Amino acid sequence: MHEQEQDEQEQIDITLYDLHPVRRIARGLRRRARRIYKRLRKRVRRIFNRLMRPVKKIALLVYRPILRYTKIENDLIVFESFFGRYISDSPLALFENLDHEKYRCFFIVNAPQKFKEYPTLKRRSFKALYYMSKAKIIVGNSRMTLNWEKKEGQVYLQTWHGTPLKRLVYDLTAYDMPIADSFEEYCEIFSQDVVRWDYLFSSCSYASEKFRSAFRFDGEILEIGYPRNHRLYQHTDEGILEIKEKLGIPAEKKVILYAPTYRDNQNDGVGNYYFDDHLDYELLSARLEDTVILVRYHYIIKQKNVLDYENVIDVTNYQSLNDLYLISDMLVTDYSSVFFDYSILKRPFFFFTPDLEEYEEDLRGFYLDMEHDFPTPPARTTEELIKQIERVKDYNFDSFFEKYNPGENKKCLAKTVELISYLCDAEDN
Q: 309: which of 178, 226, 256, 281 fits an S-S bond (Cβ 3.0–4.6 Å)?
């Protein structure tokens, strides 16, 4: 009897063993089927959208004139951040500090399902255009859709997204972007948004001067800083520990934030940007012990590198850049303007620029001299960067902070909330 049970058990084991690869194959087929379904769905959506474009254009020709007659509502404020990709930056800082019992606030976003905790409107939808036509205040930090026709009585606050290092718009020394076929066409597209701006935010006289030149903007510049930086002036040690815990970083670990920008010529021709990352993460991680390296690629980069290294974390999709600033002991960038804001914390920053000459001569060019206008010179290799980090005490960052971040900037958020209140309460609408 015992032998019979043993034989039956062996048969069951053999059967399960035989089924194991079948199950694996079945799981693989299911995954493949899901991938195929997603691809087909994307293709169908693209085809549908292409077919609908002429219909939408015709509908817009009818719809836009109607929106000219909608009544402006003084308690309605519409925000957009980075072309609707995120809810972040200065628009979010203002949203969080307004009285929501007094004002109705909405964010325009590409994917409302990702931001269910916020009141949202789908970008490029007729509903979004309707709300924009009725809003007293429009707040943005980059260009906004040209389908919105600004009316008399509406106020457009352009908070922008940083003090410029690399040249912008009319100041570009070279042009290689998919947004337009030529430099002239690109400037024209930008100008159509600039003429709608009522107020442009700036951090200092240097930024104001460059904005005037780059945007050909002759309206009012509010040289009071950027609302988003309020948290950099007011933070606590307990808050920093909470952010570290959220990201799974031990409290005793040092943190380096690496935040490079994109390259205009690193794209597939339709705005799908990639990034050739030359930083040697393995060497950096090995030489800088007890240090976590956070990598924050530019929001426009879609094809990211897989960062499978010890003590390296990809934080590109982490919503709050200020959180990352606060927990970082130092910053590494290339040509991004992030170091201007980061310097508010009076912490060290470094430049990793393996393609410096190409970027300066063939792509954007700079407003400042990378070799002489900063506390630290640009590092061409990872080894050079490591040596600079190891000698961090040899560099003085205080004078840079004082020049580009005047003390009054800490009041920017409060001043802007006060301005919005004043504009909404004005009776000449």
A: 281
Q: What percent of the residues of the chain are helix, what percent strand, and what percent coil, each to the nearest 5?
A: 45, 15, 40
CA pair distance 406, 203, nearest whole angstrom: 8
Burial class from Cβ neighbours inside 10 Å (0-12, 13-18, 19+) for residue 283 reads middle
In Å, what is the CA distance from 325 to each residue of 92, 225, 329? 17, 17, 8
Same fold for the pair 66-225+412-425 and 231-395: yes
**Topology of domain 66-225+412-425, CATH:** Rossmann fold (3.40.50)
Spell out the domain ranges in the chain. Answer: 66-225+412-425, 231-395
Q: Identity (one letter) of the amino acid at 61? A: L
Classified as helix, coil or strand, 114 is helix
Q: For residue 334, which of 359, 360, 353, 355 has the smallest C-alpha distance?
A: 353
Residue 392 neighbours by CB distance under 10 Å:
14
Place of tokens 């912008």: 168
CA–CA gap between residue 228 and residue 160 (Å, rounded) = 10
Overall size of the chain counted in residues: 429
pTM for this prediction: 0.81
Torsion of Cα atoms, 414 then 419 then 425 then 429, to 10°? -160
231-395 under CATH 2.60.40.3250, yes or no: no
**What is the phi/psi pair of residue 43, to 5°?**
-65, -45
Segment 170-227, tens digit of pLDDT = 999 888 777 888 899 999 999 999 999 999 999 999 999 999 999 999 999 999 999 9
Q: Do 296 and 318 touch, CB atoms closer than 8 A?
A: yes
| Run of H or E including 136 | strand 135-140
Report d(CA 204, CA 209) in Å as an integer: 9
Q: Tell me: the pLDDT tens digits for 358-396? A: 888 887 889 999 999 999 999 999 999 999 999 999 998
Tokens for 59? 């509908």
Quote the CA–CA distance of 152 and 292 in Å, as a whole number: 51
